[in-house]
Design brief:
Elements (H helix, E strand, L loop, with lengths): L1 H31 L6 H23 L4 H26 L9 H23 L14 E4 L8 E4 H23 L1 H11 L1 H6 L4 H27 L8 H12 L4 H21 L1 H4 L3 H16 L14
Helix pairs in contact: 1-5, 1-6, 1-8, 1-9, 1-10, 2-3, 2-4, 2-8, 3-8, 5-6, 5-8, 6-8, 9-10, 9-12, 10-12
């Protein structure tokens, strides 16, 4: 029982991190109606900025403090993501208002390659260490309840708590603020939103800024765990099944979908892996997403689209 709970807890913590990446897809889609392939590149760019600024700030200021360097790097990286969001809205999205979804999709593909190249040009293409002060040592818990206790990775636990707090704040932002309601209105119909006075350029700028902050937090956490390297862009691919499972238009769906995928990956690898030769953790999420596409393409919480002729 203890081993099962240990595996389950590990899956929940990884799933929350998946949810954080998937949230970027949902935010952009809710505000523009386009699937943002650039989210993985944004995660990488934000992680690169955070890692390199944390390395450069002690050299610039002479202050050898990890906390000061990380806080300053976070602020600078966040400001850089805001500038990036402004440039995307000003140079790309503003000229594509009311265009077909395929046109906007291709635009995000172009943005992806631009951000990848820009990140290499500014920050370099090596593997960089990002130390944000999270403890790496695992701890044993519930030793009096289960024989041998449960091994908990403190870094994963803190990372999951940070991701959960950000997801909760964004959920409240969408549901309780006038800006959040305006974002939903823009997603439903660009022209109708403009006709009632909702400024489309400002809304798109805000949502790309919010998605940039989500990418920064995701990049910071995953960069601390894995190192900042260009394989971080594949996080977007790992988040695709989460979005399909939860629904492209649902913030709670991104959370539930991430938890289901995280737990499913861990449990299937531990309990089914020995019977199929291992490696099930790599493709389990995609098979589950395929099943949902066949029987419930809108996902668990997505809105069912009905076309009336």
């Amino acid at each position: 029982m203890g081993f099962f709970l240990e595996t389950l807890l590990g899956g929940l913590m990884v799933g929350m991190l998946y949810s954080l990446v998937a949230l970027g897809f949902v935010l952009i889609f809710k505000a523009s109606g386009v699937f943002n392939f650039a989210q993985g590149a944004m995660v990488l760019f934000a992680a690169l900025a955070m890692a390199r600024f944390a390395e450069w700030i002690p050299q610039w200021t002479g202050i050898q403090s990890l906390l000061f360097a990380n806080l300053s790097a976070f602020v600078l990286a966040g400001a850089l993501m805001f500038v990036l969001a402004w440039l995307i809205e000003r140079l790309v999205l503003r000229h594509l208002v009311n265009q077909e979804g395929a046109t906007l999709l291709m635009a995000t593909l172009g943005i992806t390659y631009f951000i990848d190249g820009l990140g290499q040009t500014i920050f370099g293409s090596n593997v960089y260490k990002l130390d944000i002060g999270m403890p790496k040592e695992p701890v044993m818990a519930f030793e009096n309840v289960f024989q041998g206790g449960i091994l908990i990775n403190k870094e994963d636990l803190i990372a999951a708590a940070i991701a959960a707090a950000l997801v909760a704040l964004l959920s409240l932002f969408f549901q309780k603020t006038s800006t959040g309601r305006a974002l939903r209105a823009v997603a439903d119909d660009h022209q109708a939103a403009q006709s009632i006075g909702i400024p489309l350029d400002r809304i798109w700028f805000i949502v790309w800024c919010v998605a940039g902050v989500a990418a920064l937090v995701a990049g910071m956490i995953w960069g601390s765990k894995l190192g900042v390297q260009f394989s971080l862009t594949t996080l977007a691919l790992r988040a695709l099944p989460v979005v399909i499972l939860g629904g492209l238009t649902s913030v709670p769906g991104a959370i539930i979908g991430g938890l289901i995928i995280g737990v499913g990956e861990k449990l299937s690898e531990v309990y089914l892996g020995p019977y199929v030769g291992g490696g099930i953790e790599i493709w389990f999420a995609y098979v589950l997403a395929l099943v949902f596409l066949l029987f419930r393409p809108q996902g668990l919480f997505g809105e069912k689209i009905i076309d009336r002729v």
